[in-house]
């Protein structure tokens, strides 16, 4: 009888040890996946911020190029400032520091930099680099200028590596 009682205790201790290993492994797996999901959410938010800023800039450039004059002085001043962001053909890129950019909703992240590059084929590339919670992403908005109407229109969006 004494041997059976001892073996029961050994089996109980072994079973508890195995359960502790399984619970520990499960908690580690859950923690790793939680961190991965947080990083994925942060990189996705950085990418969405960069894309929305690129879309807003592309829209503003298209609007500024559609009309030579505007109804109000403020609209005309905004259009003139927007047109000043477009470099001459094959000129050096224009870089805007992210500290000059205000985003109304701070939960979106922040813009690190915006680069305007124009090549000889009348293509304007707007590269927006944004960050959110330690993750960064950049998006290129490529615009073309219509030869006849001189209106800039969006051609393509490209996501760069985060």
Summarize the structure.
The protein has about 160 residues and is α+β, with helices and mostly antiparallel strands.
List the helices and strands and how they pair.
Layout (H helix, E strand, L loop, with lengths): L1 H65 L6 H12 L9 E4 L12 E9 L4 E10 L2 E11 L6 E8 L3
Antiparallel strand pairs: 1-2, 2-3, 3-4, 4-5
Helix pairs in contact: 1-2
Task: Explain this structure.
The protein has a 5-stranded antiparallel beta sheet with strand order 1-2-3-4-5, covered by helices on one side. It is rod-shaped, with a radius of gyration of 28 Å. The chain is built from 2 helices and 5 strands; from the N terminus they run ααβββββ. Helices cover 48% and strands 26% of the residues. Helix 1 crosses helix 2. The protein has 162 residues and is α+β, with helices and mostly antiparallel strands.
Mean pLDDT score: 85
Spatial extent as radius of gyration? 28 Å
Low-confidence stretches: none
Helix content: 40-55%
Number of helices: 2
Main sheet characteristics? 5 strands, antiparallel
- How many beta-strand elements? 5
What is the approximate shape? rod-shaped
Domain count: the total is: 1
Which percent range describes the beta-strand content? 25-35%
User: Whole-Å distance between the termini?
Assistant: 67 Å
* Helix and strand pattern: HHEEEEE
Structural class: alpha+beta
The spatial strand order of the largest sheet comes to: 1-2-3-4-5
Features:
26% strand; 5 strands; five-stranded antiparallel β-sheet; rod-shaped; single chain; 48% helix; alpha+beta; 162 residues
């Amino acid at each position: 009888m004494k041997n059976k009682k001892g073996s029961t205790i050994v089996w109980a201790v072994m079973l508890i040890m195995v359960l502790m290993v399984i619970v520990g492994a499960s908690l580690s797996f859950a923690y790793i996946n939680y961190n991965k999901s947080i990083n994925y959410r942060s990189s996705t938010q950085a990418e969405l911020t960069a894309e929305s800023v690129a879309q807003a800039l592309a829209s503003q450039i298209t609007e500024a190029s559609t009309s030579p004059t505007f109804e109000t002085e403020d609209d005309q001043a905004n259009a003139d400032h927007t047109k000043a962001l477009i470099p001459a053909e094959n000129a050096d890129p224009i870089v805007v520091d992210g500290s000059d950019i205000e985003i109304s909703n701070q939960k979106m992240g922040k813009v690190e930099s915006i680069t305007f590059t124009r090549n000889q084929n009348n293509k304007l590339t707007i590269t927006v680099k944004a960050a959110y919670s330690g993750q960064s992403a950049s998006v290129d908005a490529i615009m073309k200028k219509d030869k006849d109407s001189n209106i800039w229109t969006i051609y393509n969006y490209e996501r760069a590596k985060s």
